[in-house]
């Protein structure tokens, strides 16, 4: 058996030596693994690479050359607030029948333009034709009875003048004439009523407009008062929008405002017709109704925005050709008093007049900026392109 000398001169067996050597090996492996792990973390975090200071530094020789420049100036702009609403017709008509009858024909469909007096619906009128014929036969009988009573009265009158008829006979003959006249008048009224009822079998348009809904089809039974067609007057379209009370109290009937219809990307001039004199408590708003000019492109139910001037404000205005976009960031090159060009990050606002853009931060009034016509001007929806 091999023996090893321990520190201090004592002997150690081979098995004990192996245990000590194994423990030292594990410590060495753990230390090496720790060093490798720390080195990997340092490499991944960039500690072993050269650092680049954040920010942008203009080159020392960035001087203004022959590039065109423009000046940042301050303008006064009217502020506009939007009230979102819906197009509705102030004149809307529900077409229904006055009779209970089978629908024979409906001459229009949704979307059709109709004129006042145009035939829209025809009902089965056989029953009412029969009633009219019966009333006319009754009128003929009443007329015959009247004529017979008048002849009898004339004979009795002649006999009385000759003292050949009593006063009682004369009075009875006179009464019979009055009764037959009344019966004839009643029969004539029955004929008129039957003619009116028959006229109800044909439904015409009470006013001009556009059909927007059809609730029945031929073969259905029309009920009195039950909607069959719906039409509205195109000239009565108006935008109904809830307007915040601090704006609504400044509006008056007759005021002209712009209405933007997003679906058409057009702006229409509207006139305030009505302001409902009661505020909605939860939203603190008044319902404002503004009439729109007649247009073939406008339909009831469309979405619109009522543009209400709410005052003025001053802001900085910048030429759009001065804006350089890098990703989602916008920059301008500002010319310092010594001619050095300094690039600055800006925050822009909405597009103003064509070719000009509101700038919220990054530049000051009176500063000169370099124009970049060839760099691709920042474009906003609705803005004209620059050559």
From TrEMBL:
Q: Which Pfam families match?
A: Beta-barrel_RND_2
Q: Which UniProt keywords apply?
A: Membrane, Transmembrane, Transmembrane helix
- How is this protein annotated for GO cellular component? efflux pump complex
Transmembrane annotation, as ranges:
20-44
Q: Does the keyword Membrane apply?
A: yes
Domain spans labelled CusB-like beta-barrel: 239-306
InterPro entries, alphabetized: Beta-barrel_RND_2, RND_pump_MFP
A GO molecular-function annotation = efflux transmembrane transporter activity
Q: Which PANTHER family match?
A: HLYD FAMILY OF SECRETION PROTEINS, MULTIDRUG RESISTANCE PROTEIN MDTA
Entry's family note: Belongs to the membrane fusion protein (MFP) (TC 8.A.1) family.
Name the record gives this protein: Efflux transporter, RND family, MFP subunit
Organism of derivation: Rhodopirellula islandica
